[in-house]
Amino acid sequence: MRRRAVRTGAAVIAGLLLVTAGGCADEGARPQELPVAADVPVVVSGEASAEPAELAAPSVPAEEGMGTAPTRSPSASPKPKPKPKRTAGPRPTPKPPTETQVPPPPPRPAPTGCKPTYQGDEASRSQVKAALSDAAARQYWPVSAPEIKIPLNLLKATAWQESGWQSHIVACDGGVGLMQVMPATAEWMNQRFEQSYDIDDYRDNAYLGGTYLAWLTKYIGDMYFDANENPYDLSADLCTSELNSCLLNAVIAAYNYGHGAVAREGEPLTIPNPQYVRNVRALMTECVCLDY
């Protein structure tokens, strides 16, 4: 929710990555689309995908000739091939944004040497895990963009990078709680989606962070990735070695630096904070928090 390249905080990834507890947060809130009554966030249950049945092998008539017909070896049953995903990199020139209401810009970086403060009671790891799991299970844009889903490992990794899962921390630049949501961004998100989330409550803080990630997914996806079968796909396997190649990296960057530094009208997709993006991407697979 605010601009900053690296934060000081909990140590992660087998002692190699440092998590900064206060400075890194995005402008953040959670994207639950709601001005329409039907567009209320809902919990999504997993659906089991049925495995396609194999096609039956065609029968082959026996060859006629002198004596008995030769023995036929059984034919292999053809298996349906998975339908490839239609994916593309970001547009070099984006479409105009569909979201005309945007969050406030991030604050200036905190003074060097400033230490975060703490307020209220700290939620336990099990409580934080439950809050993040609930936020990941929500469908944020059920009417206009039901494809948007925020992966649980992205929420866990972002919260670890932002606060070290400390629900009662307040950073020097104003970021609050688990997802380091900026107060001005929380206020904007509540107005935009007609909600009343409390930034100081760790559960609402998780929802605000999830909402902001979802809003960024729609905003950037509509501008740069509309050619994809799913323009809101946050899969890591769509990313190449180029950081600006996929929506996931762009959303992570914008959570920390603000949407305006990543997605600008008429300009290519930009990653202004590569180290932050690499940290969160690594945490998505290696964070100790994934086992909590």
Automatic annotation (TrEMBL):
InterPro entries: Lysozyme-like_dom_sf, Transglycosylase_SLT_dom_1
Record's keyword terms, sorted: Signal
Key word Ion transport present: no
Ranges where the record places region Disordered: 47-125
Source domain of life: Bacteria
Bias type Pro residues, positions: 91-110
Residue ranges annotated for the Transglycosylase SLT domain, each copy included: 149-265
Sequence ranges of Low complexity compositional bias: 47-78
Annotated signal peptide: 1-25
Entries under Pfam families matching the protein: SLT
Name under which the protein is recorded: Lytic transglycosylase domain-containing protein
